[in-house]
Amino acid sequence: MKRNIDIQFPEIPLWLVWGIVCYFVSFKLGSYPILDNNEGLYAEIPREMLRSGDWRQWIIPHLNGLPYMEKPPLLYWLTALCFAVFGESEWVARLVPVFSSVGCVCLILWFTKTIERKNAGGLAALIFISSLGVTAMSRTLMFDMLLTVLLTAAVMSGYLFCVRKQRRFLYICMAMLALALLAKGFVALILFSAVMGAYLSVSSTSPGNFLSRVFECLHWRGLLVFLLIAAPWYIAAMMVEPIFPWFYFINEHILRFLGKREPHDYYAGAWWYYIPRVLLFLFPWSFFLPVLAFARADGVRQRAIHLFLCLAWLMPLVFFSVSSAKANYYLVIVMPFAAIQMALMLEEVKFGGKWGLIMPGVLLSILFLALNLWLLGVKNEALNGLFVKGIFTRYVAEILLAASVLVTFFSYRVRKWGLLLYILIPMLCLPVILQVADVRKNYVSTKEVAAWLRKDFPHSEVVLYRVFEHQSSLPFYLKTPVRIVDSRSSDLFWGNKLHKNNIVVSDVQFQAQLENQKVALLVLKEDLPDFRQKKYFPEFKLTRESGNTLIFTN
Fold it and tell me: What is the pTM of this model?
């Protein structure tokens, strides 16, 4: 009877790590348009910053010509800088999340080398960058990847200061924490305090020791670094906009956490909301979790680092689970530390031996086999409607099934590099996802609509009907704010309420405008029944249709 051989996973060459990282963050980065909703908002704000010529818009950002104070400005400043250097395009708009994701990889490699687990560092970097949720967030202009890299740097530096007592780590920690505060607000302070507070609590020998370590972290020089970076914008914002303190600190932070923020434009969910989503975010590496069931950390030093890593991803997960506001993209915050801990544990259990390496492949094969069997029972017409012209068809499912079977086979035959073969699964998934995004571009972006409007209606004013967010990429592509009639927009709610403007117009104002102005009115299909009830409906005729958008002209 043959004995199970321990598998010593070799150190992954850095050139291979960075080659795979470059693939995931840059492959067809600009092939799909700016997406409506969040990405459209966050691309338009820095564009308006550059075009405004008003320094106050760099303090209080503007969205579609109206003040937008929901988030701090660091993401907008960095994106505006990218636009100024490289021009306004899709791939340029996504450079900040791309470099933030690359920064996380650098931090993972640096931290694992610092704690003398360099061999697992390359694997952790690959687990991080190829996980489904991270891949998506690395290629979408949103706040969360920027927050992730800054908060990760702050927490790692804070931990190293606590264990090594080197003041430089404290200064780095406070500088990164200040930038994280400018990236997404006080949630950065809360998450940092939760992680480091929990770690100091469980690793201190007594209450007195805990308090002394806390006071060390609050050294006045470190606090000075933090305030010098973080405070100027908050002071300037309060001087430019008097209502800023209430709006930003109370409405956007406290009331949002309690689920009482106005307007209520976010999702809610049960306490277990994130549990299945963590597994999806980690795909395909979540299939390795059964292999870790019997992992054990040997030695006090290894137990200490695992304790820290566990708290670093668990405490944010607990905070988001308790909060009334839920969003899938919040989960990217936990991914760097989850990837590091998973890589360390896989190394410590010798990757589960021969059978541990093939178990995830078997599970993936079963998953894709089930998908193929389900697709066999679906008619082509249904596939076309569900997956848009059959892009995600049986052929894609068959390719993924074949890939998972091959990965399983070669993991068994070439055990030394077997784990690395699993990177092929997400590498194959990325082109499929991008192809689906390209085919659905008229449903997720207004790029084509904007091109039609410029070509066919150059003398007509473009007006949106009711909902701005679902067509938020339009101002970016038209290079100008657009007016909204009978607005139901949440993101423009406070900007319209605080200041008199001509961006949001009533039905009466709009009808008066029609007497001497040619208008191209964009109406979502879901709003068509309501639009038909308006007094000005008979003055319009349907001219074009694109995705969920109907274009009416008078």
Answer: 0.92
